[in-house]
Amino acid sequence: MALLNIFTTPRIRRFEYKPVYWDPAKEQREERLERVKHELGITEESNVYKPAIRRGVFREQRKTLLHERQNRIIWISFIVLILVALLYLMF
After folding, report:
1. Domain locations in the chain?
2. What is the pLDDT of residues 11-54, one digit of tens each?
3. How far is CA 30 from CA 11, 27, 33, 83, in A?
4. Neighbouring C-beta atoms of residue 49, cutoff 10 Å
5. Cα(66)–Cα(76) distance, rounded to whole angstroms?
C-alpha cells in the first residue's frame, strides 16, 4: 500500500474563494421594508422578521438619545422661565 503512494501524484487542491459583498444601503432598505411589514402585520410564515444589528446602530442610537435629552432640557428650562416670569408678574 505504501509502495502505491510513491507513484501516485497528489490531487490538485482548488482554491475556492467566494467573495462577500456588503452593501449597507441595501441592508438598510431591506431592514426598513421588514420593519414596515412587521408594523403593518404583513408576515410570511417562511420569512420571520429578525432585527439586524448592523454597523453604526449603537452610535446612531446614542446620537438620537443625546439629542432628545438636550431637547428635553431646553423645553424644561423654557417652561421654568415662563413660570418664573408669570410668578414675578403676579407678585
Report:
1. 19-54, 56-91
2. 888 888 888 888 889 989 999 998 888 888 876 665 566 666 77
3. 43, 5, 5, 48
4. 13
5. 15
